[in-house]
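Posting for a labmate who doesn't have an account.
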Amino acid sequence: MFKRILIANRGEIACRIIRTARAMGIETVAVYSEADAAAPHVEMADQAVPIGPAPAAQSYLVGERIIAAARDTGAEAIHPGYGFLSERAAFVQAVEDAGLVFVGPPSSAIAAMGDKIESKKLARAAGVSVVPGFVGEIANADHAAAIAADIGYPVMMKASAGGGGKGMRLAFSEAELREGFDAVRREAQASFGDDRLFIEKFIEQPRHIEIQVLGDRHGNIVHLGERDCSIQRRHQKVVEESPSPFVTPEMRAAMGAQAVELARAVGYHSAGTVEFIAGADRSFYFLEMNTRLQVEHPVTECVTRLDLVELMLRVAAGEPLPFTQEEVRLAGHAIETRLYAEDPYRGFLPSTGRISTYREPASGDGVRVDAGVVEGSEISMFYDPMIAKLITHGATRDEAADRQVDALDRFLVRGISHNGEFLSALMQHPRFRAGETVTTGFIAEEYPQGFSGAPESPGRLRRVLAVAAALAEAQATRAFTISGQLDGAPARGRKAWVIELDRTPHAVEVEQHGDRATVLLADGEATVEARGLAGFVSGLLVAAIDGRAYAFQVETTPTGHRITHAGRATVSRPLTPRAAELARHMVEKMPPDLSKYLLCPMPGLVVSIAVAEGDAVEAGQPLAVVEAMKMENILRAEKAGVVARLHAAPGDSLAVDQVILEFE
């Protein structure tokens, strides 16, 4: 086994690899850019080597610097993690030429599967089902339109060298195809340095199912079951689970056999993933092979009780697989959600900045967190916006989903926007719980107008109301105690309150006894027990309501609290009955009208401006393209108007809500 390895990556995957290496007695070397000098993976590793400026193209993607760091520190092998150089055949060859071991598949397999056009040809030759499409290079938009007309709409345009949801665009008509063609090519060039595209038939009501394969250097290849990655947004996976609620044992065996045959055809060893798209009739077609460890590998680890990173290291060291296909067993159900730095209430726009508060849910009892940040870490525009991965495991799918909801309530992140409430809403959604009807169109179909919070439920409303009332009474009692005029708080007995929740009044009565409160609600009494209620200001409040523990994220506001629980944020305002009566006569302040401005919805770079001063525009017309985190975002006119003035130009870096242009 290796004595020392270098990890050619950053963030949570670097931390993940370090944990396993440490458990195996292997020393680790981290590499870092200027932006990551204080990152957790740098602190965790035994050694750390700087490799350049913040942009990945000048640091993490410079293979020569990484190989030099490995040789200078005496590392015997390089683990690439995922992303960056993990699927660069030339990098693998350079590693081996330097006398080092690449912890991954051979360069020939990466080259064969890395080109999406060539990989489909190889898959077809290996007897693997392939999606109907044009397997070849596309010259221009006219050529693409002719191909799409022959295949039949809808079609998907994809970058040949693509992955990770970048360089992809769905078109339902020729107009949509022509509009998106150039943008896809630019995204492909920016992300992969290769602007070649291919086009294939889009399978309607599709499910994204992938098979985890694992091979050694002795010709042994097995599969470890499937992962269902159907819940996606803009082709980026949001939720992954294993096993799939859609896949039957017969389907699993057939998909697994095809995945193993494809891996065998390219001489594969190490961990890899063969991705399929499945139709409603359970037909399935090859999409691509990811020749690396996947972001979602923890769900497979949970249901198989295997450590994929450890197995990758053992395979790289020449050891044979310690089990056969017949010995692979799947136990229970696992779900992974990706906590991203994005604002689900603003169209999931990226959020950058410093994490001012970071508290993870406790690991254990079916809960695992893989993270690469700590309190004080910065989410920058240079890298992927993922904060952490939350993985839960249970005997059943419902148990794993319930643990997700509870753990997300306990995942406290402040300083940036994140999608935690959205993930919680997904876990509670009836269609997700049903399982079999979840397709890749789930988010677009269920949230066509965007996300506005999890639907209210009587149980959630009751819990939030009870906590808000208990906080109000505990803090009012404390105010009497510290007023400086009394030796102690007078006996208050049962106190009447009107608790406004999102402006809706609820009459309650509260009796407070230290950290315990009895709240009389419209449907009966609720008991609330929580340590430090009276002095609570802001943060995570764990309270037992009628004997069961729940978590609430509480922020103090000038008039009350903002309470987040079970995927929904509620603004509470406690009032005395008299104050509530007077409040009904207060005039509501209206926000300013900003409809005449096009505002930049996220920090980003202006790629292009599609209009000029004096132009008349129609609703839905493209106005500008802004790039953020390597993804292009088309900004469109919300209504008809005339452009009065441009405030930005291509190449400008803009902050969130900075004015791009204004209308007359």
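Reply:
Got it, the structure tokens are right above this. The domain at 4-103 is CATH 3.40.50.20 (Rossmann fold).
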